[in-house]
Amino acid sequence: MAIRKYILELDAAPERLDRALAAAWPDLSRSRLQALIRQGQVRLDGDLVSDPSHKATAGAEIVLDEPPPAPAAPAAETIPLQIAYEDDDLVVVDKPAGLVVHPGAGNENGTLVNALLAHCGASLSGIGGVMRPGIVHRLDKDTSGLLVVAKNDLAHRALAEQFADHGRTGPLERAYLAFCWGLPEPRRGTIEGAIARSNANREKMAVVAEGRGRHAVTHYAVEEVFGAAEPVASRIRCQLETGRTHQIRVHLAFVKHPLLGDDVYGAAFKTKAARLPDEAKQALAALRRQALHATLLQFEHPRTGTTMRFESDLPPELQRLQHALAMCGPAQR
Questions:
Q1: Which of 26, 159, 289, 303 has the fewest Cβ atoms nearer than 10 Å?
Q2: What three-state secondary structure class fits 229?
Q3: Phi/psi at 273 (nearest 5 deg)?
Q4: What CATH number was assigned to the domain covering residues 83-165?
Q5: Choosing from 18, 94, 140, 142, which is the catalytic residue?
Q6: What is the pLDDT of residues 205-235, one digit of tens each?
Q7: In the chain, where are the structural domains located?
Q8: What is the pTM of this model?
């Protein structure tokens, strides 16, 4: 355990604790510092502080108990990967549905991390923590699409900072194609609601009062509506202003337009499948996952500063679903 100490300058204005530490120790990403604060590794004038937004005032002594890097436990496994781009600093993967990003309870192997260890060898950045080498952000197991992985610590820190900033001051952009039940109104809008672990089911997330959960913002635009007499389903494009667990799935369920195929957040809408034509019913039944695809990923290259932009077409199973839904005819609204 390494101990770091920092004393805020006497003429400094009050500042968020995570920002003060990020300025003091640029070798640690702000997202990493936020995690350490929440884990109880930071003391302010001798008192433990677990809120990254807590204000540190002039002259305050800040002490960080920095745990040593944990070794990556997963074993390398030869698992086919679809690589969209790769260089010495990073690799962009087009992840298929069904592939877990990192090992965890019930998924100790057969994950993207196992595959990357075989593909990249020991070069993967270790600061992602135990069992998550190189992982800067993640996609749900049953969400397909683009994901960037760091191959060294420089890349990991720079990319983590961009994802923590959510594109507010840089070129980071993430867009998803989603198929949801019904037609969201208005057809272009923003869903805003804090997200936290559900009290009713600890395996699910839920929209909660703003002070209880983490602030979350999803922008959406309807691209196509399916249903001859009335809207049965829509294809929408979602852009994240924040990156919370299950964010798009939770927000769409909150506004009563859950994703097709989402048995966790859209179970109450299963009966709507009866309104689909046979081909659409079959395509939905064969999907066996939520209809969500990470179609766009843009970020600044951590070494060159170049804006990198990648796009991914819908995978075959979602193309089949889209074609089958089109058999419903265009909605009349």
A1: 26
A2: coil
A3: -60, -25
A4: 3.30.2350.10
A5: 140
A6: 999 988 788 899 999 999 999 987 789 999 9
A7: 2-66, 83-165, 175-296+313-326
A8: 0.77
